[in-house]
């Protein structure tokens, strides 16, 4: 299993499209993160070379609607080359990522941190 550790927005959102309160926004952001995680997990074949607990951050650029334009593994990723390639390919293959229902918390640019865990 792969855990989504954090979503880091890299672009400010229009305040008119924000949920009303901080708690509501946090709840929607967490749900969005879970949806993104599930979408990538469904198509990711994690190499056997990855050890439990290893982590890798991926910068994702996407369009409204969830179409992934680019997925770039970050330099601090501790995955081996096979793990890096497989995660990057999974993000691209998962396109379009979830969007409907998450318009208020959608981020065009974001960083997802995946942590290797138990095999599915």
Helix-strand blueprint:
Blueprint lengths: L1 E8 L12 H22 L11 E8 L5 E6 L7 H13 L15 E8 L4
Antiparallel strand pairs: 1-4, 2-3, 2-4
Helix pairs in contact: 1-2
Model description:
It is a single chain. With 120 residues, the protein is of the alpha+beta class. The protein has one domain (2-116): Fusion Protein Consisting Of Minor Coat Protein, Glycine Rich Linker, Tola, And A His Tag, Chain: A, Domain 2, CATH 3.30.1150.10. Helices cover 29% and strands 25% of the residues. It contains 2 helices and 4 strands, in the order βαββαβ. A 4-stranded antiparallel sheet has the order 1-4-2-3, covered by helices on one side. Strand 2 (55-62) and strand 3 form a beta hairpin. Helix 1 crosses helix 2. It is globular. Residues 1-5 and 10-16 have low confidence and may be disordered.
